[in-house]
Amino acid sequence: MISLLQALVDGVLNGGVYGVIAVGLSLVFGVLGIVNFSQAQFLMIGMYVAWFIWHATGIDPIIGAFAALVVGGAIGALLYSCLIRHVADASVLAQIFVTVGLIAVLENLALIFLGADYRSVKTSYQTEAINVASVLVSKPYLIAFTAAIIVSVLLSLLLNRSWLGRAIRATAQNEAASTAFGIDGLRTKSLAFGLGTGLTAFGGGVILPYASVNPTVGSQYIVLMFTVAVLGGLGSTMGALVGGIIVGIIQSVSTLFLPVQMKDLALFVVFIAILAIRPQGLLAGVSR
Amino acid sequence: MKQALIVTVLVALGSLVAGFVFDANSYPIRVLCIVLLTASMGQAWNLVGGFNQISLGHSAFFGIGAYVTTVAQVKFGLNPWLGLPLAMIASVLFALILSVPTMRLKGPYFALATLAAAEACKIAASVMGITGGPQGLSVPFVGDSWAMMQFRYPGTYVPIFVGLFAISSIVFAWLVSSRVGYFLRAVRDNELAAEVAGVATFKTKLFSSIVSAALMAVCGVLFAQFTYFIDPETVFSIPNVSIRAALVVIIGGVGTLVGPLFGALLIIPLEELLNASLSDSVGGLPPLLFGALLIVVVLLKPAGLTSIRVPRMGGRKS
Amino acid sequence: MFSRFFSAALTVVALSLSHTGAFAQETVKIGVVVPLSGPNAQFGANIRNGLEVATKEINERGGISSLKGAKVELVFADATDPAKAGVAVQRLVSRDRVVGVVGSFISNITLAASEVTERLGVPMITHSFADQITERGYRNIFQVSPKASVIGAATFDQAAALGNLAGEKISKIALLWEDTSYGTAQSKGIRDAAKRAGVEVVVDEGYPPGITDVTPLINKVRASSAQLIFPVSYVNDAMLIIRALRQQQISTPIVGGAGGYIIPDFGKALGDVADGVLSITPANYDANKEMADKYRATYGIWPSHETLLYTAGFQDLVQAIDTAKSTDPQKIRDAIASARYCVGFARALPNNCVAFDQNGLTSTGQPIMVQWQKGELVTVWPRTAGAQLIWRGSVVKE
């Protein structure tokens, strides 16, 4: 029983973070209709930003994660307005494969300029855990989870209450109509893309206390990110969070009766099964 | 289409000639083999991708093909020519199983489900004892042998790869011009309307995925015989197999006969050129430039290389 | 017309045929097939550093004397996975005319590369551990490290011996292993050795190396009564595991299986959390302080095991070329097979020499045990004077 509780706690904490990492992907799809294959590279960018801030000033990566959000967002918005929008009218495949090219570009820029070493931070709470009735709650996980929830709430407020959020949702629903109403499509889309990449970069900063960064760290998370976003329903930001927590729980709980080696296998089987029953994902958002 | 067929035949013949004329133990010949293999992989993907079923799980079929013949060789001494139909059957069976949960899926959902399936295959291959696990399997060394589909130097493989390329192109050309192809185009353009018009959409899509799976499996078999060593990470690789197959088609022109060929002719030598000239310098420069050039190519020609039209007398579009 | 593109493509192909540095009497080229990008780029970079130091030294001393002072030139090929290894080897052999190859760090890449070097008849020297490397009956592949099964067995046996020294008899162990070639092979060695010694493996869990959350593994360890923990990991997973163990306040001695446990980043990232962690390794820099300090002066960090082993292998290859008085790869291969090389980086290896048996497996290599002590790796087995052993936080009195 304790081990089930422990697995659930670990799963939920991890899952919340997966949600924040994946929500950007979902957002980008919802607004722009493209699957950004390079999304995981922004995780890497965010981790590096938070690392450099920590290295230079000693500021905790959770705080640095907000800077990561801004930097990751800016880079994303720039990439959209300079590169990706040129294929906005072409096939979806072309848009996707521009992002595929970006994977190699971003990863190898990091390799060339930042080197191949694995960097990590040292924080005071990194190797600590809180004991709650013999369930060990890892402090870095808890802090990351809290940050993830806060940002999710902020995102929800942004999308529902702010002008930008309304502009994004309007553009997603009907671009022609929103342009007619004076919303600058290109600017909105760039900002939406930037918001998406910024959120993933934020996720990077948040996981830095327990993960290490290296140019290829994106490849560790990319499949997970996509699974979470698709499971939750692409375009649905709530779905990403829900998807994240479900994925976290499946991964964690499956290790109780399956070898840890197969936890991804368990996840994929469940994933395919859920899609078979609900092809648009759990909380289908803006339909595309 | 006729021009495309002519180009295909010319390339096939040209490759055969090159295979005879050039030194069998040479780098350009090895690259030629890889080009032909990748073009065939692309053509296999094209059979579904060309009709808007964007699959990212083709590495599953590739890997199944590679493993079936190699395991049969290593454990049972079965020669790969006989193992080939077994590989195709295994791959088709997996495609059938996979079609059940994925047929209703669209767009990125379909793509991700196929990706998950391929990853699941990779994990399964890693944990199963019979596949040799993560340490991989070596194709037993026999020097030069047509019976065992294995040769010391790449030059001798050229006819086999030309054959694979020719067959994959013929299969695609046939499918496109057949009734099934007609239904596939209807499904691609508007699945709901096609369904209403009486097209058996499920059976149509299933048919093309089975053929695609079988062809991809053959590519996997030849890959194993050519590189002599396979492991789960390599043959079930999403970036190196699934994405690469789709990539050459997208660069070349989705849904066209020569798209995969043109894509492969651009991508593979380009990558090799970058590696050959820049490996000595900063690590990471070749893949960086490759990615950048890829972006440029897609931006310049989003519909693929085949969309490049040279003005002709009379201004007729081909 | 379409043929325009065809001819353009042919031109590109032909361009990759040509090479500005034609085969000259004055240079002997050696191919290096290692990961220079991707997740193992760091190891490729370390190997490259060592090889460049050695090449500079050889050329400054006058090159290969028996070939009239021919200079040695390294030709690099980036191989991040087995599929790329074959074409890289072909290019190095056919286009660059290398007379020998060193590489490829990752066992599976080495396996793929050596399939091609065997067929093309060019000798290859590797440090990769996989047993199969020298079990295929091939003549052109040479392994300077002991095999994975031997390393695995030594990990257990030496750890148990150290436990004895510290007064602790080991009867239960936990085994965590990344599930690619390296972890699978080595953990098998540990498992079999434990079985032979009648020791129970109470936790035996493989995991994917890209794992992002190791708490399920550590939960199992915590719930067990293991007296030693044997994690076989790469870099990222090693750090996750060590941190998670500390988090759950598990003070059981940790015996890493080389890989991520013996690279400088491990110590840099974990700081004093790394102290006391033991690991098996095929070679450690403290066997030759003078060489290590020289390396440290240039690169700011001590030479890791892959630097030592590949550079020693490379120097062995160069010496073989000198002995063979020829650039014929087969003559060089014969010289490697029969030579025993005891200078250069070989002096930092166990038994101070590089030599091979009739299968190409090292006949001098031997796994040793090291321990992290204040950011340095100290050899603790075989026991030498002055090497302290720290067990559960205190120095062991012998």
3D structure, described in words:
The complex is a heterotrimer of chains A (288), B (318) and C (398). With 288 residues, chain A is an all-alpha fold. Chain A has eleven helices and two strands. Chain A has one domain (2-123, 132-277). A two-stranded antiparallel sheet of chain A has the order 1-2. The model of chain A has no long low-confidence stretch (mean pLDDT 89). Chain B has one domain (2-237). In chain B, helix 2 (27-49) packs across helix 11 and helix 6 packs antiparallel against helix 9. Chain C is of the alpha/beta class and 398 residues long. Chain C folds into two domains: 25-146 and 287-355, Response regulator (Rossmann fold, 3-Layer(aba) Sandwich), CATH 3.40.50.2300; 149-281 and 368-395, Response regulator (Rossmann fold). Helix content of chain C is 42%, strand content 18%. Chain C has helices at 2-17, 41-60, 82-95, 107-120, 148-165, 181-196, 215-223, 235-247, 264-270, 289-299, 305-324, 329-338, and strands at 27-34, 71-78, 100-103, 124-126, 141-143, 172-178, 200-207, 228-232, 255-256, 278-281, 340-341, 354-355, 368-373, 376-381, 390-391, 394-395. In chain C, the strands form five sheets. Chain C has a five-stranded parallel beta sheet, with helices on both faces. Chain C has a four-stranded mixed beta sheet with strand order 9-10-13-14, covered by helices on one side. The longest helix of chain C is centred in the N-terminal third of the chain and has 20 residues, at 41-60. Chains in contact: A-B, A-C, B-C. Chains A and B meet through helix 4, helix 9 and helix 11 of A and helix 4, helix 5, helix 11 and helix 13 of B.
Descriptors for this entry?
heterotrimer; A: 288 residues; mainly alpha; two-stranded antiparallel sheet; 11 helices; 73% helix; globular; C: 398 residues; alpha/beta; Rossmann fold; 5-stranded parallel sheet; 12 helices; 42% helix
Set down the secondary structure blueprint:
The complex is a heterotrimer of chains A (288), B (318) and C (398).
Chain A: H1 2-32, H2 39-57, H3 61-82, H4 92-114, E1 129-132, E2 135-138, H5 139-161, H6 163-173, H7 175-180, H8 185-207, H9 217-232, H10 237-257, H11 263-277
Antiparallel strand pairs in A: 1-2
Chain B: H1 2-21, H2 27-49, H3 58-76, H4 80-102, H5 107-127, E1 137-138, H6 158-177, H7 179-189, H8 191-196, H9 201-227, E2 229-230, H10 232-235, H11 238-252, H12 259-278, H13 285-300
Chain C: H1 2-17, E1 27-34, H2 41-60, E2 71-78, H3 82-95, E3 100-103, H4 107-120, E4 124-126, E5 141-143, H5 148-165, E6 172-178, H6 181-196, E7 200-207, H7 215-223, E8 228-232, H8 235-247, E9 255-256, H9 264-270, E10 278-281, H10 289-299, H11 305-324, H12 329-338, E11 340-341, E12 354-355, E13 368-373, E14 376-381, E15 390-391, E16 394-395
Parallel strand pairs in C: 1-2, 1-3, 3-4, 4-5, 6-7, 6-8, 9-10
Antiparallel strand pairs in C: 10-13, 11-12, 13-14, 15-16
